[in-house]
Amino acid sequence: MTDPTQLASYELAFPGPLRDRLVAAVLTGTKTATTSLLAEYETAGAPLPVPGERSALIDSAGHAVAVVEVTGVRVLPLGDVDLRHAVDEGEGHRTVNAWRAAHERFWRGDALRDALGDAEFTVDDTTRVVAERFRVVEVLDPVAAAVAGELRLMDPAVRASRAAAERLLDPGFTEVGASGRLWTRDKMLAELPGMDGGTDRGTGDVTRHQSAGMAGVLLAPDLVHLTYETAVSGRRARRSSLWRRAADGSGTPWRIYYHQATPVPEGM
Fold it and tell me: What is the C-alpha separation between 152 and 146, in angstroms, rounded?
């Protein structure tokens, strides 16, 4: 295993919920690109990334969770960012306009302006950005990778997208649901969008699962066991899942192999 202390840090956004989502997207193979402001490098006096460069991906707790390698770098005006790059950032954007709106909110935020030392900083079509592509070379923390996958599967946007969910389910996936029903991979993919924890197609309301106490154990080099509890629409369940390392080069390092949910009676 690579010694992460010998590598430079690779940090996405600032520590907190946004970084957590981005790191989860990287660990599940969804995010293979990122965009930074050229001004960030200039302010820090840091060199631009170069293809082949390897770094340690850092989570919000400051832990190195993976080794990533830069595969491509472009410096271009913000107005020239293309749809493929926007989609490959793995944040669920399907148009350049949606991608840009989300990034502009971040770049005009107080934290970024403080980092640049410019309280009035803003962006427009001519703002120079660094569009970077990368790949995961090595997952340093298998438990973190499994947790990232589990959290992705609770995301209503992922549950609503067969393609996104498909990437996270092992070909041999089975689940014993809270009702005792046995689910196969195909049945789960077909019905997942309409289950609790997704977005109601009629009202647009989101019933996101809230998780607590998620913990994992590495049972074998390629197998992680997770346990945790969820609550959704007033119902609680205790859950157990097995995640195993993908061996087919699919780009998704870890996928869920088995899941079981047990309802928690009211008052317990």
Answer: 10
Q: What is the pLDDT of residue 203?
A: 47
Q: Residue with structure tokens 């403080």?
A: 114
pLDDT per residue as tens digits for the range 138-189: 889 999 999 999 988 988 888 888 888 998 999 999 999 877 889 999 999 9
Burial call 214-246: b when 16+ CB within 10 Å, e when fewer:
bebeeeeeebbbbebbbebeeebbbbebbbbbb
d(Cα 246, Cα 255) in Å, to the nearest integer?
A: 6
What is the pTM for the complete model shown? 0.79
Rounded CA-CA distance 206/228 in Å is 21
Q: 199 pLDDT exceeds 60?
A: no
pLDDT surpassing 80 at residue 239: yes
Q: Indicate if the alpha-carbon torsion angle 128, 133, 136, 142 is positive or negative.
A: positive
Count CA atoms closer than 13 A to 157's CA, side-chain side.
9
